[in-house]
Amino acid sequence: MHVSFSSSKIKKFINQQREKYILYKKMVLMVNESIITVKNLSKKFNGLTAVDNISFEVKKGEIFAFLGPNGAGKTTTIKMLTTLLHPTAGEIKINGYDPVNEQKDARKSFGIVFQDQSLDEDLTAYENMDFHGVFYNVPKDLRKKRIDYLLNFVGLQERKDDFVKNFSGGMKRRLEIARGLIHHPKILFLDEPTIGLDPQTRNHMWQYIKDLNKKEGMTVFFTTHYMEEAEKIADTIAVIDKGRIIKKETPQALKRLTNTRSLEEAFLKLTGKSIRDEKSSSIDNLRMNRKIWRR
Ligand SMILES: Nc1ncnc2c1ncn2[C@@H]1O[C@H](COP(=O)(O)OP(=O)(O)OP(=O)(O)O)[C@@H](O)[C@H]1O
Ligand SMILES: [Mg+2]
């Protein structure tokens, strides 16, 4: 019997094995170690309890989503995890460090894309990227390579020498995401990174992040209002409402446990509220622009 293998079949086989190996490596990492630990964490602003005694863990290499309606406490939690706000009560460990008492080491462990715009408007796109790279000690040659790649990736290569103050809201958002990816951090926090972006750019961005997660084991912690994003990307979803975590499961388990067919329905059942979806992107734009105008 004559058996012939075409090179494309062999390549496909090798790729399949590689994918399996990467997945296996990811499972081992996730089972073994947690990179974020939160115990009984609360934040009060005067009389208001924004985060109410939450506890959870994120494993190394996990993609973890915080899903919740407006005002649920997502950003407040991220700010505490990333040293920007001090908790009222509770404990946090980020890559083994306490963000209150070991701020410097904690900060070296993560990158962040903020919900609110945080670019320097008086610098060019390239300068914003370069400054960030220097801050995170990315060596010069690698920095230049990554900046060129990322600016191209988010479609801003031709505008690299323009001042950010002259950019549109969507362009600023794209630049901000690119900036967050320069230093390939151990943990990447993304607070509503894709708000106001078109579906194609969103897909593109998630593909890149998933790739980094697979290749470098980068842990990802993100919030979103887009259900399909959470469903497609996240290994684990924590549903948060009124400062409390109601459920923390895989997307599949969330649907199974609520006896629903979509994450949208599961969310509605758990919180009694619907979350804005893709159809309301005009609202997102409004909201985002409002935030930019307010500055
Ligand atoms: N600095 C602050 N001072 C007073 N109240 C605050 C402050 N920051 C947040 N809050 C309040 O805490 C609650 C949680 O806000 P947070 O920004 O964490 O919500 P969120 O889940 O990120 O919402 P969104 O989806 O709109 O971004 C809200 O009621 C908000 O008004
Ligand atoms: Mg928020």
Summarize the entry for a quick read.
With 295 residues, this protein is an alpha/beta fold. The chain is built from eleven helices and nine strands. It has a domain of 203 residues: P-loop containing nucleotide triphosphate hydrolases (Rossmann fold).
- Arrangement of strands in the largest sheet: 5-6-7-3-8-9
The biggest beta sheet reads: 6 strands, mixed
Q: What is the top-level CATH class of the domain at 17-109 and 185-294?
A: Alpha Beta
Going by CATH, the homologous superfamily of the domain at 17-109 and 185-294 would be P-loop containing nucleotide triphosphate hydrolases
**How large is the radius of gyration?**
20 Å
In whole angstroms, the N-to-C terminal distance is 74 Å
What does this entry look like structurally?
The protein is of the alpha/beta class and 295 residues long. It has a domain at 17-109 and 185-294: P-loop containing nucleotide triphosphate hydrolases (Rossmann fold, 3-Layer(aba) Sandwich). It contains eleven helices and nine strands. The chain has helices at 7-32, 74-81, 103-108, 125-135, 140-153, 169-180, 199-216, 227-233, 251-258, 263-271, 281-294; strands at 34-45, 48-59, 63-67, 89-94, 110-113, 187-191, 219-224, 236-241, 244-249. The strands form two sheets. It has a six-stranded mixed beta sheet, sandwiched between helices. Helix 7 (199-216) links the parallel strand 6 and strand 7 (219-224). The longest helix has 26 residues, at 7-32. The N and C termini lie far apart (74 Å). The model is unreliable at 277-286 and 288-295 (pLDDT under 50). The protein binds adenosine-5'-triphosphate (ATP) and magnesium ion.
